Give the backbone structure.
Amino acid sequence: MKGGADIGRFEAVVVAEKPGVARAFAAYLAEGRPATVKVAGVPVYVFRRGGGLWAAVGVRGHLMDFDFPPEYNRWRSVDPIELFRLEPVKVVREGMGSYVRALRALATRTSTVILALDADVEGEAIAFEVMEVMRRANPNLRFQRAWFTAVTRDDILNSIRNLRRPNAAWASKAFARMVLDLVIGAAFTRTLTLFVEKRGARLPRGYFLSYGPCQTPVLYLVVKRALEREQFQRRKYYQVVVSAEVGGGVVRLRSERRFERREEAESAAAAVRRSPVGAVVEARFEEKVVEPPEPLATVEMERRASRFLDIRPKRAMDLAENLYQEGLISYPRTDTTIYPPTLDLRAIASKFAAHEELGPYVSSVILAAPTLRVRQGREDDGAHPPIYPLKCVRREEVVKRFGLEGFKLYDLIVRHFLATLSPPMRVEEQSVVLDFAGLRFRAEGLKVLDPGYTLVYPFERPDEKPLPRVREGERARALSVEFVELETKPPPYLSEAELLRLMKRYGIGTDATMQDHIHTNVKRKYFEVVKKRCIPTPLGRALIQALSEVAPELTSPEVRGRMEAMLRGIAEGSSQPEEVVKRVKEEFLEYLLRLRSEEEKVASALLKALEAVHGPGGRAQGSRAASRP
């Protein structure tokens, strides 16, 4: 073992998905203090347990990729149609060679391997990759799966006491998706790139026009909203505005009627000035109960991080992973919005009774109640609980370890959890309508009667605009009258939070990958995010418009959603991976043939976009390879 002493055989080797999780397993399982040795340059935590020697090692995600045989990676000599007829092969992922060597070395020194990969479909796929690597060095190994949703002592010890069999169906789902994304992405990326290169576009080495079966439907949603904005017909209109004295206060109201012509608005305003005394014709003061938010799932965490904290979804996911590895929050990849009955919510809340800011609220509101009032959602992925905090940690400690953004996300998760155990907010929705000279004027107001959960979750505290309490028939006097010129507004560009919601609705990607598909489009320069809004570039627009005219299925969110549903069937055991891969390949091959039949039209549109962005020849356009096309 390079870098370490000859430490003999191990009773068991624990393989985790990340070094931080491996370190936690060693710390919580060890009898005494673990030692660190290097195996093939990879840190391995060695410790004693039950009189025997154990080891824990962390990899860094997937060990393997799917790729084509080398002779099929020559773009200009291989027809992209051929890619649909190949069986991709597994190869060691770039940068993972040292981890493969370390696992093989450890495989020869044990008979038992505990697969402590993340508890989701991707984690299951990595578990099977680990099994494949280690079996090559020791075919007689016995593998068991540790299932945990939080990096805490209790969760880790419980996972070791309740080891299970690896789930082949889950891994098959992940591998089928990887194969399809490779084949489809490569075939269409090569096709589009060769379209423009054959017509003179000079692409720098390593750059290309990329297509992705998730990436491109996401871009479609962004372009669709941008086109709706551009096609929106702005229309001017006029309203009369009065400031009126009523109910002991002064209220500003707008006419319910919208006037199309300026002269009509002027005439209505003059009539009110001539008859400034009016009356209340409608007074509505209704109490409304606003429930706390549902327990936090992955996509909603990313949406709220974007909306409330201005933290991009991919960055939020990276921070959440770091918080999870350090045992500050539960597993952050989940679709569940229901707390399981086995989760001791009162005990978790009690940890925050000493919180520097929230402690008094936790003690006097949440813990003081005889029974917890728990807000539950409706979704359950059958694998993980919602995201919740595990430890109460001071602000400066979190900032020191994860930066200010890390603290903001941790604080959001803490507050969200406490909000789900809090009473609702009570508000009074107010509406007053006055009549002056036969014209109705309306004002809307809001008053918070009881802040409820927003005391601990201020992100959802509304702005108060209370109206004076009035009754129908009460007299009012117009103090000032004017008319204003207004204009109908187009829909805004999609926000990242709204885009995530749409991806969730259509089933584009998974809770683990949705933010990656947004990030890929930004990296490919198909759209940019400006002040939380997704704005397509001319190249992104051209790609979507060209594909939509020829083969709209290539951009359709519904098509990708249907593909995800087929992949789910693999995980559920109702479909065979070979059948799903074959069906999807056949479908996309038909789209490719249709695309090629309209090559001139598509190429012309893309070339124009490239020249508009980068000048004649499109020398600097495209996007650098991030995966094997």
In short: The longest helix spans residues 168-197. Residues 1-5, 618-629 have pLDDT under 50 and may be disordered.
